[in-house]
Design a protein that fits this description.
This protein is α+β, with helices and mostly antiparallel strands. 41% of the residues lie in helices and 9% in strands.
Length: 170
């Protein structure tokens, strides 16, 4: 009879071990799912910060290009490549080190904001909803509460109003 009691208790113990193992696997799955979601959100926030940095780089390059013209002859560039090597000067004058890729889409495509055929700003081609909706710097106050990254427009000057004149181009 002692043997019979022993085998029943061993079966019960094996059942509890199996149950604990299943619960452990379930909790690990839930933890991995939450961790993956947190990682994806952190990655999107990093891309947003990078988009803001690159937008500022384009804004400053447009400012340097615009102010580099002869007195009274300030103008915006015709192409983004003009920011890499200013064609108005005999010796190369660079306003931007390289053409950046859009960090949100991963492509080197930008929607150009044009005014009278010249580039006054750039914006992303992404239609994703931004995580950051408020607390922007003063120069970026116009980016607040936008419904997609494509609405984040980086122009020089930062508060330049550009009426839609069929002026957006890829």
């Amino acid at each position: 009879m002692a043997r019979r009691t022993n085998s029943c208790s061993q079966r019960r113990q094996r059942g509890f071990a199996y149950l604990w193992t299943l619960m452990l696997v379930a909790f690990m799955g839930i933890g991995l799912t939450i961790g993956a979601d947190l990682y994806a959100t952190a990655a999107r926030r990093d891309k947003e910060r990078e988009l803001l940095f690159i937008g500022h780089e384009f804004r400053h390059a447009l400012e340097r290009y615009y102010n580099a013209g002869a007195a009274g002859q300030n103008q915006y560039p015709l192409t983004l490549e003009d920011l890499l090597k200013d064609p108005r000067f005999p010796s190369p004058r660079r306003h931007l080190r390289r053409l950046y890729a859009d960090p949100v889409t991963g492509k080197a495509e930008w929607n150009l904001v044009l005014q009278q055929g010249r580039i006054v700003g750039v914006r992303s081609t992404s239609t994703q909803r931004p995580i950051k909706q408020d607390n922007f710097d003063d120069d970026d106050a116009g980016l607040a509460r936008k419904s997609r990254y494509a609405d984040w427009i980086f122009t020089y000057p930062h508060d330049l109003f550009t009426a839609s004149q069929g002026g957006d181009k890829k």
